Amino acid sequence: MARSHRLFELMQVFRRHRMTVSGEALARELGVSLRTIRRDVATLQGMGADIDGEPGLGYLLKPGFVLPPLSFTEEEIQALVIGAQWVSRHTDDQFAFAVKNALAKINAVLPPEMRPTLDDETFYISKPLSASTSIDLSEIRRALRDQYKLSITLSIEHAPADPQIIWPIMLGFIEDKRYLAAWCEGDSKYRVIAMDDIANADVLSERYARNRRQLIKEWRALEILPCTARGETC
Q: What are the Helix-turn-helix type domain coordinates in residue numbering (predicted)?
């Protein structure tokens, strides 16, 4: 392994460890000697990495340091390309535009010999077979990000005619379907609603008070299934 690549790998190992990690553990993970680890840590410190610790005590990388230039393996680049294709074809126009910008930034800092991998058409991700929802997913994402309440009207049979207030907590993509997990104010329950069943969705100016991450934790513990057209209030 080239030394430059080994330094990047060492940085990745540091980022995976939130607590102090011993030199022996680093050496085992990278398949090198303890002496090499000590030398590489000293090199990173000389480049500006804020690494606390000493030989025999362990090391801890403090956040905020990035090694220039950006380096990826060929498989990592292919994984990014596949993920970018999926996002651009299964989400919304704003996300698709963000994907193009992200790939352009990655391409700008890749070594010249790695750039063809970014444009390699080895993989293909198809668009969803079913018709996409008419709801603007970028607005749903905004509500999720900023914890805004949503006012929705459902199109399924026996659904209440009046709008319902929900707290959106997660947007899911399962095969060709999109689902919205939410806390419903009307009946104080968690629901998983198919986006195709939402006729209208408005982002309200009011934020819900509880932390979204905590709501997700509670919802996952309940293992709620998607709503159906059996007359349930979603």
A: 6-59
